Amino acid sequence: MEAIDGEQISRVREVLRDAGRVVVLTGAGISTDSGIPDFRGPNGVWTKNPAAEKASNITHYLNEPEVRQAAWQNRLTTPAWTAEPNRGHAAIVELERQGRLHAIVTQNIDGLHQKAGNDPAKVIEVHGTVWFTRCWECEDRRPMEQALARVRAGDVDPACLECGGILKSDTISFGQSLIPEVIDRAMRVSDECDVMLAVGSTLSVYPAANCVPRANAGGADVIIVNGDETNMDRYATHLLQGSIGDIVPAIVAPAT
Fold first, then answer.
1. What is the pLDDT, as a whole number, of residue 1?
2. I need a labelling partner for 216 at 20 to 30 A (CA). Which of 23, 111, 136, 204 fits?
3. What pLDDT is recorded for position 2?
4. What's the whole-model pTM score?
5. 127 carries an active-site annotation
6. What is the DSSP annotation of the chain?
7. pLDDT in tens, 200-215
């Protein structure tokens, strides 16, 4: 991989300026600068709290009340409620302002793209969102804050207000099926783009990682920005390894 320098940044910037339909694929790495830890890293959520990983498994969550109760306590203090978008998120908003953003496919559940100012209609959340709850039985969907208020008031395992069923965050747990319509849309926009910009993802979690070879097969330029190597580096037209908060704003900077 060639070293990142001003010339490389300039080449990638030109690729983006010539693009008409950019799809941005984001992973946990874009949100760490906002204070949201990843899951498996040295300071990851599951590394520090193995019980939280158990709560992410749908079988444990549905069948063990103590796992659900611990999950509700953890939800009270998740960093997502107070996290602010960072320079990487702002740069993607700039890409939309330029009229080049076709869609964002995100593996993140924190809602920071919408909070930064991206059009929610352009954000495809393949793993769901922490900002809503969904009933496992009747699929009633409500703002998460309503359930959290009940937990603060002493309800250790709030049930669905419609049917009394088990509530969970509207995210995809291990063992839970992805939503076919969401995945189909993610693959479709990947087929349609002329540039795929993958940011902050190891590109090892499927099916989201498939967006990269899909875009490549369609003739799109593939730009990968990450702190380390990814599983899809072989598809990249341009590899930029380093600080996401520095690189992404540099490559989407408007012409001067």
1. 39
2. 111
3. 44
4. 0.89
5. yes
6. -PPP-HHHHHHHHHHHHT-S-EEEEE-GGGTGGGT---SSSTT-HHHH-HHHHHHTBHHHHHH-HHHHHHHHHHHHT-GGGT----HHHHHHHHHHHTT-EEEEEE---S-HHHHHT--GGGEEETTEEEEEEEETTT--EEEHHHHHHHHHTT-SSPBPTTT--BEEEEE--BTSPP-HHHHHHHHHHHHH-SEEEEES--S-STTGGGHHHHHHHTT-EEEEEESS--TTGGG-SEEEES-HHHHHHHHTPPP-
7. 999 888 899 999 999 9
Write out pLDDT tens, residues 75-120: 999 889 999 999 999 999 999 999 999 999 999 999 999 999 999 9
**Cα separation of 44 and 85, whole Å?**
19
| Active-site residue, from 60, 89, 102, 127 | 127
Q: Which two tokens stand for residue 207?
A: 């099916």
Residues of the chain short of pLDDT 50, as ranges, are 1-3
Q: Smallest Cα–Cα separation from 224: which of 209, 86, 63?
A: 209
